[in-house]
Design goal:
Length: 404
């Protein structure tokens, strides 16, 4: 049977439909509806068919997406501080810690809002709670709140710093009581992960600050010395030594001393330095009571610039040989770390010597070509360092320029 088959019948589907031009309707894919209403589907060109199929695929894929249930907002609570430390300097307790870099969920901590500092006074024999018991046993009172907008005022050398000066409290009345400190970090929603670790301190009476430091530079060391405080300056506690702090920039003294353990005697030998560079020193006394230590206030910061006035060692092993009409000199090489070169001196009578090299010699040899036959010449050499210091002259040697 041939002839026009007549208009195609639209697919009978259920569900919501999309209203399309020319009254086309299809609940999922309008391209199918378009094909069903084409009077001669077989006459659709290949290019047009491929285009229709691409459109159909895109619409079908988009229609397959599902909207899931709403996700709860992230809870960005900063991790607690884990490295709270304390030191007594003079009459004050100095606390230091590092701000957490991450939240509890591992994301970057960018919503820090406030730091609260707490202190609790407990009996001398009290043991600080472990990590899992801090929230149950620590009952400290808030003594300071630091807003993060003021962070710079409490930051030194990359750490947060707070000094407890005991306002309204005379620390001398504490006796042997312990001081427990902790901090809390909260976010902009006032949420926190609890207290930090506990820093334990016992307030000790300390001697007065050391008034000044004396310096002496030697070739291999800077020697510091000071007068110890009076033996009665710190009643009840023993002075166990001293701490030395050294900075390399004016106004910046590191928080850690150069010595690993308190120095027993009131002097210190600094072996790591450079001539011509300025160093800044301060010294304090260290007292101890059982496991607790405290430092006196620092001495006034003293600047010291060591100057190299130390000549190299005198060259040794000088020899002179006349050959080929020339005086040939040879001596032992200098092993000085700041060696710069040598000078050669000559005399014709052994009394008055004149330097005969135009520039510093880098090697321990020299050839004197300006000699006269049958004449005796006297020689000595010296070493010079990078600063220009010249050693004492070597032993004198002499030789006759024998005629050929």
């Amino acid at each position: 049977m041939t002839g026009d088959p007549g208009p195609a019948r639209a697919l009978n589907v259920r569900g919501p439909v999309s209203v399309l031009p020319h009254g086309l309707k299809h609940p999922v894919n309008p391209t199918i509806d378009l094909l069903c209403h084409t009077r001669h589907p077989s006459r659709v060109s290949g290019t047009a068919l491929r285009a229709l199929l691409l459109v159909a695929s895109a619409i079908w894929t988009a229609g397959c997406g599902k909207v899931g249930p709403p996700l709860p907002p992230e809870i960005l609570i900063p991790q607690p501080v884990v490295n709270l430390a304390s030191r007594q300097i003079g009459s004050d307790i100095r606390l230091t810690w590092t701000l957490p870099a991450l939240n509890l969920n591992g994301t970057k901590a960018t919503t820090l809002e406030r730091i609260d500092v707490y202190r609790q006074i407990v009996p001398p024999s009290s043991l600080p709670p472990g990590a899992g018991e801090i929230s149950k046993q620590f009952r400290g009172s808030k003594i300071m709140s630091i807003d993060m907008v003021n962070q710079d005022a409490f930051t030194e050398q990359g750490q947060m710093v707070f000094t407890d000066q005991f306002p309204g409290l005379n620390p001398e009345t504490l006796g042997s009581s312990q001081l427990w400190y902790a901090v809390k970090i909260s976010n902009k929603k006032k949420q926190d992960a609890g207290f930090s670790n506990i820093a334990v301190r016992q307030w000790l009476s300390v001697p007065p600050a050391i008034p000044h430091i004396d310096f002496r530079a030697e070739e291999t060391q800077i020697i510091l010395s000071w007068a110890p405080p009076p033996s009665t300056a710190s009643p009840g506690w023993s002075i166990v030594g001293y701490n030395v702090y050294r900075g390399e920039q004016s106004g910046v003294i590191p928080t850690a001393p150069v010595n690993d353990q308190p120095i027993v005697k009131p002097h210190y030998e600094d072996l790591i330095f450079q001539f011509g560079k300025t160093y800044y020193y301060t010294v304090c006394s260290v007292v101890r009571n059982n496991q607790f230590t405290a430092e006196s206030l620092n001495s006034p910061v003293s600047a010291f610039k060591p100057v190299d006035v130390f000549p190299p060692k005198t060259p040794t092993g000088l020899l002179v040989v006349f050959a080929d009409g020339k005086m040939n000199l040879l001596w032992d090489a200098s092993l000085e770390p700041d060696f710069a070169g040598y000078n050669v001196y000559r005399s014709e009578e052994g009394v008055t010597f004149t330097k005969i090299n135009d520039s510093l010699l880098k090697s321990p040899t020299f050839r004197d070509e300006r000699v006269q036959a049958e004449k005796r010449y006297y020689y000595r050499v010296s070493a010079v360092d990078l600063t220009g210091n010249e050693s004492p002259p070597s032993a004198v040697v002499n030789q006759i320029a024998k005629g050929e």
